[in-house]
Amino acid sequence: MNKTGMMLTLAAAATALGNPPLYELQFLGQGFAGARMNARGHVAGWVVPSQGPTRAHVSFGGGPAVALPMPGGFVSSAAYDINDRGDAVGVVSMVSHPTMGSTTPVVWRRVEGGYQVQVLQPLQGDTVSYAVAINNLGDIVGGSGGIFGNSRGVLWTDAGPVHLTQLGGAAGDVNDERVALGGLLLLDLDTMSSQAIDPPDRMMASGAQLNIHSNLVGTVTAYSSTCASFPARYLHGIGWEIMGGCSNYASGNSINDLNDVTSYYGSTYAAWVHLEGLGDFGIAGLVAPGQGAWYFQSSAQINNRRQIVIAGFDNSSTRRGAVLLSPMSMCDADYTGDGFVNGDDYDAFALDFDEGWPGADTNHDGFVNGDDYDAFAEAFDAGC
After folding, report:
1. Residue 127 CA to chain centroid, in angstroms?
2. Could you tell me if 224 and 289 lie in one domain?
3. Disulfide-capable partner of 82 in 10, 44, 120, 221 (CB 3.0 to 4.6 Å)?
4. Do 323 and 349 share a domain, yes or no?
């Protein structure tokens, strides 16, 4: 048995070790639910309107969410992940909301000026199939099964769906090293060799997301009627670490390549973020003053720029939906979100600008034009 898998420690401390950044808040649209976010702050999700079916949407770096195209014959859709290129994956359905019936996996591929939707095939005979993650290499993973569950792990390739029998269940994530996560199993898609992550001693655990190092965030469950769940992360060479207090409804939700993690406590409606080297912070307390009276009552996602996307409610207005929180010290010239400002950023922006890609709308006025180019050039010249 893997000894590191049996370790259970308390990470850092629940108090601050350093000063966290203050965050600027951008409202992404009424009713928009953000599922996951890429390195550039682009968010994939969906909108449940007051009337009409659920529809997949994407927000580009703080701009209002825009609807993704629907394939013919389907009624509703939802987007679950987006890679740095802008390709998104999710599901479509023939009923008003994808969770209410059979689902079909889809990928929205970036094309000049927008998106083109492609329907993916489920495993043969399955009626409920869903694509939940896409990496920057274009690997798409998810699950396929029936209305009574029993989902099987799937990798979608150009030749069709591949049953990932080694996972024993649905895949939940895939990183740029081509490692897929299913429960507590890591599967190398190049070699199809797997590694099981042992849960902590006398406890259960589940993985929610992994980073480029194949470290993961998830939830550890103890045998207790009053304090059953702990948000936790698993770091290779260290083992399991508890990332905060317990609750009957606690969960670990997101991890970036810095090993920052987000967590949520359902019993107290509290969303937290662990910023590696700084400490643990309530997300609501990181928002700079004067941006509304926001309450955050959901799980959150965090990227390598330490941007956070989370569902919120502004008590001073009627705004309810996903918000993008960006550190006020974040460098706008880092267009690729890799932590550096260099020619790669200029080349990436220039390509997006030439294609009229919505992600190049740096001033969020709904257009890609010379004003955006001037704004980015000014930021790039200023450096960081």
Report:
1. 25
2. yes
3. 44
4. no
